[in-house]
Amino acid sequence: MPITVNGRESPTPDDARVSLLDFLRDHLELYGTKKGCNQGACGACTVLVDGERIVSCLALAVQYEGREVTTVEGLADNGALHPLQQAFIDHDGFQCGYCTPGQICSAVAMAEEISRGVPSHVTSDLKAPEIDFDHDELRERMSGNLCRCGAHNGIVDAIAQVYVGGGA
Amino acid sequence: MSGTESRSAVPIVPEGWTPKSGDDPVVRDKHGLIGAQVSRLDGPLKVRGEARFAAEYLMEGMVYAALRYSTIARGHVTALDTAAAEAAPGVVLVMTHRNAPQMQPPPLFLTAPKAAGGSSLPVMQDDSIHWNGEPVAVVLADTQEQADHAATLIEVHYTSSTPRTFEEARQHPRTPDSLVGQPVEVLVGDAEAALADAAQSVDLTYRTPRHNHNAIEPHAVTLGWDGDDLIVHDASQGVKLHAWTYAQAFGLEEDQVHLTSPYVGGGFGGKTLWSHHLLGAAASKLAGRPVRVTLSREGVYRLVGGRTNTEQRVAIGTDDQGRFTALIHTGISAMTPYNALAEQFTFPARHMYATETLKTDQQVVDMDMLANSFMRAPGESVGTFALESAIDELAVELDVDPIELRIRNDPERDPSSGLPFSARNLVQAWRTGAERFAWEERMAPGTRREGEWLVGTGCAAATYPYHRFPGGVARLRLDKTGHATVEVPAADMGMATATTQTIITAERLGLPLERVTVAYGDSAFPGSMLAGGSGQTASISGAVIAAQRALVEQLLALAGDDSPLAGLTADEVGGRDEGLCELADPSRWESYAQIVQRTGRDEVVVVASASDPEEMQAYSMHSTGALFCEVRVNAVTGETRVSRFLGSYDCGRIINPTTAASQFRGGIIMGIGLALMEETEFDERTGRIMNPSLAEYHVPVHMDVPRIDVIWTDIPDPHAPAGARGIGEIGITGVAAAIANAIYNATGRRVRDLPITLDKLL
Q: Could you say which of A113, B317, B399, B687 has the lowest number of CB atoms within 10 Å?
């Protein structure tokens, strides 16, 4: 079974050692997904698989047969920027831009996790039906995505603007 | 912000103008584009993931490289068995010192204007090993997986001798030749005697550990030979420097190396030329195939030098009014015989405080380690930790507010050189910041507690020098539609260099932003630029000033008698509304497009060199800042959280508040890491870095970063192009001291060795 990446089907690689990250970059030439550490520590390679975020460097491509993968290149809708992509520009949520695709993909799925009621380390009430999308929840849940330029304030503001109307 | 509204004309700088003579007309009035909020121009490309980095270029027939690193620090390779690797699937080449082509050692950074080598050691030319992690083999294969696997199949045997430890080496310190070109020792009067006689004094020792840059993009290079020419897609902070250094190593003419580096995924001083650059080109030459070298994260730690460790003494003596009678800042750092950076941590003490006597001096100890290198604010980052902590300790001794103590000792002239400051408004930054932060609400040490959290506030000064590098050249093209293109071999690792220069150039020429393109990151452009020393904005601006004058002179010469500008000289005109006008009579105006079209040409092109940076000799030029911090220290766990931070800066004119704020915040956040968590763990017994990963070297994450407030005086420096002194590095300076001082205020505990991890507060 093929992997579907941004709506396009591709056969899985013959070499079972190929990570999903290297498959995207070196086989499909989708360089938007970045390699920062290749060991799951930096989040630069975050992509969405069936809507959930994973670090693609710790995934083997062959494990993802039949799954739907969305990369940063797949977020824009017919060329129009995803609202979060625009918000990253508006809030200067990046400098070098290398962690940016991972931050954006991660945030898209993170917002879904909150809306599904998935708790985090800082969730105060695990029995509450809804989780407050506050500043701490947002920062805690994004802490797996490192940014060395120090654009954290802009990233958080961009996410807050799109998913909580700027209130986080 | 299109900037299309009509603005008053910006005069052309006079013939022979330099920043030393002062007052760049582009900031004479505060209006127009400079100071407007502009989103970075490469933003759409970056958020789409379409900005192409060094490891993302394809070359025909390209193979992938994997490196094998030595596991000893000092000794020799005695045996190498590469047969299994050579026989492994997909392997094209195994290169070791036995078959590596001859290369000259890369000229060491600062030893020549375009030298970019982080280390002057020869690269894989013999069996000797100089640091733990030195490459001993390069494998090329058709895929990265094949190369990585084959590299593990190489058998390496060594003879090794024990590496020198810091404690051993410090028995034999040496004085470095210079501190980045400045004298090592500065003496004003007899500071030791004045210290002994002082009414009040402190005499303290501070330590800072090794650090690594950890740009999220690992170093990478994609390259190939075209005959005797070398084509390189690089991640570089100085494209002309890298090209020139490659040429020296391979015996080429400079223009035989064509090197581009349009996007760099973070640099912080680390994206200079290291051994992977030369190994990739050498292996490519041997194999006859283009090569992509992407260092693993561990590989970056093994091959790219970071910040060295320091041990610093700061002693301050005062009279009974708290005025400094003695200021001493000395210390040692680890280094190697193969590099030239002693980490100039004594620089801030030379410029920051008025003192009757002054002594600064540094020594280094040679260790068997990878050459240490430049990392954001080399010297000032860790030097301000010691100096600004000591001043806080002195304030406690004197029972005086630490801000008041600093203001009391703010100098009229540079205390080491005696030169006038080009501009210094630190006292204003202190006062504005203190009010905004509500500094007066500060409580006595260890007296504010909220549940299990001890809360405290602290302050420290920030400082970083102005730099404008010689050799700046700009090519300026003006086409017949009136679109201007600046071509400079600059680098943009995320500082928004291109955006900033687009703003300044548009303002200077009287064009809207969309009529200006700044092209950079290409060794084909004339001159030389370096993204370093926070000096690139000034360096490019200086070159564009010269190019604009040359362009206007040529346009006026070409305009002809039919032009409304006929007969005018460059001194009589200014840029306005997409054209030139007479300053005295702005109705005499003609558009750039009309002027160029009148010549019958498609474009007018000029190349001009910046004036020499004489302003740096005539004035003491430094940016400064006042930092305010609130921390919460957990009384149970010792965990420190930074809960509030304000930076109040005096850096000259801020060109683009949007991206400037990001530069300041980025530096401050790296300073939070410096204060609380960052440390390259170096095993002195083996000379090996033991935490070469982002899992074990901790950098600040989202949860560690509070909202960071930044403000600035925005007072133009009359002796800097565009009035701007540069902002890339000052952000990290002073931060560790502000945090350490806040921790003291919260807990009553003084920590003098970084990072301030929780074990030091239990």
A: B399
Q: Which residues of chain B have pLDDT under 70?
A: 1-6, 30-31
pLDDT of residue B1: 37
pLDDT of residue B40: 97
Q: Which of A167, A37, A158 is nearest to A106 (CA)?
A: A158
Please report the pLDDT score of residue B8 as a whole number. 84
Indicate if B217 belongs to the active site: no
pLDDT confidence of residue A129? 84
Predicted local confidence at residue B30, as pLDDT: 66
pLDDT of residue B29: 72
Instruction: Give exposure, B271-296, as e/b (b: 16+ Cβ within 10 Å).
Output: bbbbbbbbbbbbbbbbbebbbbbbbb
Q: Which of B684, B551, B539 is nearest to B168 (CA)?
A: B684
Residue numbers of B between 42 and 81 with CB closer than 8 Å to A: 42-53, 55-56, 58
Residues 85-114 of A with CB under 8 A from B: 85-86, 88-90, 92, 94-101, 104
Compare all CA atoms of chain B with the CA of A33 and give the residue at the minimum distance: B49
Secondary structure (H, E, C), B234-265: ECCCCHHHHHHHHHHHHCCCHHHEEEECCCCC
Instruction: Please give the backbone phi and psi of residue B484, each rounded to the nearest 5 degrees, phi first.
Output: -105, 140
Consecutive H or E run containing B647: strand B640-650
Which among B301, B304, B138 has a CA at the least distance from the CA of B235? B304
pLDDT in tens, A79-106: 899 999 999 999 999 999 999 999 999 9
pLDDT in tens, B344-363: 999 999 999 999 999 999 99
The tokens of B171 are what? 């028995």
**Quick check: A167 pLDDT over 60?**
no
CB-CB under 8 Å, B49 with A71: yes
Measured between CA atoms, how close is B700 to chain A, in angstroms?
8
* Closest to B405 measured CA to CA, from B526, B494, B290, B324: B324
pLDDT of residue B288: 98
| Helix, strand, coil tally for chain A in percent (to 5) | 35, 10, 50
- Among the partner-chain residues A17, A36, A95, the one whose CB lies closest to the CB of B494 is A95
Strand A3-5 with A68-70, pairing: parallel
pLDDT at position B346 = 98
ipTM of the complex: 0.97
Q: Do A148 and B670 lie within an 8 Å CB cutoff? A: yes
H/E/C letters for each residue in B187-244?
EECCHHHHHHHCCEEEEEEEEECCECCCCCCCCEEEEEEECCEEEEEECCCCHHHHHH
Adjacency order of strands within the sheet including B310-318: B186-188, B358-366, B324-335, B310-318, B200-208
Is the CB of residue B741 less than 8 Å from the CB of residue B392? yes
Chain A interface includes B229 (CB < 8 A)? no
CA B329 to chain centre: 23
Q: Which residues of B touch A153 (CB under 8 A)?
A: 665, 705, 707-708
Grouping H, G, I as helix, E, B as strand and the rest as coil, residue A159 is helix
Using CA atoms, how far apart are residues B570 and B556, in angstroms rounded to an integer? 7
Average pLDDT score, chain B? 96
Query: For all residues of chain A together, what is the average pLDDT?
Result: 95
d(CA A131, CA A118): 8
User: Which chain B residues are Cβ-neighbours of A37 within 8 angstroms?
Assistant: 218, 297, 693-695
Strands B229-234 and A68-70: unpaired
Are A89 and A152 in contact by the 8 Å Cβ rule? The answer is no
At A78 the pLDDT is 82
Q: Is A66 exposed, middle or buried (0-12, 13-18, 19+ CB in 10 A)?
A: exposed
Beta strand B640-650 with B708-712: parallel, antiparallel or unpaired? Answer: parallel
